[in-house]
Amino acid sequence: MKTSILVVEDDKAIKNFISTALDANSYNCLTAENGKQAILTTTSKRPDIIILDLGLPDIDGVEIVKKVRSWSICPIIVVSARSEDKDKIEALDAGADDYLTKPFSVDELLARIRVAIRKMNYDSKSNKETNIFVNGDLKIDYSAGCVFLNDEEVHLTPIEYRLLSVLAKNVGKVLTHSYILKETWGQSYENEVSSLRVFMATLRKKIEKDTNDPVYIQTHIGVGYRMIRVQEDRE
């Protein structure tokens, strides 16, 4: 199956330049001209890689990185005319995987894409045995992005799913508020602890039988949260 790549670029000449290069190298190319189209295409088509310009007409590219990172780990390669270090740092801290400054050569772009594909293949191979997480009656199918409780699917929002995944991948460990915020939103939001509590409360309502006596998610007041290993705690 061809690797699908979404090109988010409002400059038609550059968009066509990149699209032509991708088509010539047997990639399945998708395009978007603004931020809204980019988010819609990302959620509906689930591209393997995103090539993203930061200077879009409606939404700044950094904000798109943050939005995508709230629910997806697909590689994001930024291509931008912004060459200042602070711009690169902001995009990478938001969750971008790579940063290419305009103008760039086709060969360099293709090389960055190959690096992203190698990383995806490595991560897929490394996680082959851990695609399914089971803890008591709770099951997470990472490959499908689905959560089940007592074999019935639980419908979570992207942020709720991300929160649950972060806790599950660190089961038994106490995670600080700042760590959870960074892993969920792509960077640290020191003033968003109250928002985290709201999302955690809605998540608990969906997976806990009794939110006053939680089985899966334990609160450590003033510190953070922990995913309880149900079998171990019951023993």
From TrEMBL:
The keyword Cell membrane does not apply. Residues 4-117 form the Response regulatory domain. Residues 130-229 bind DNA. The modification 4-aspartylphosphate is found at D53. Keywords: DNA-binding, Phosphoprotein, Transcription, Transcription regulation. Residues 130-229 form the OmpR/PhoB-type domain. It comes from the Bacteria. PROSITE patterns: OMPR_PHOB, RESPONSE_REGULATORY. May play the central regulatory role in sporulation. It may be an element of the effector pathway responsible for the activation of sporulation genes in response to nutritional stress. Spo0A may act in concert with spo0H (a sigma factor) to control the expression of some genes that are critical to the sporulation process. This is Stage 0 sporulation protein A homolog.
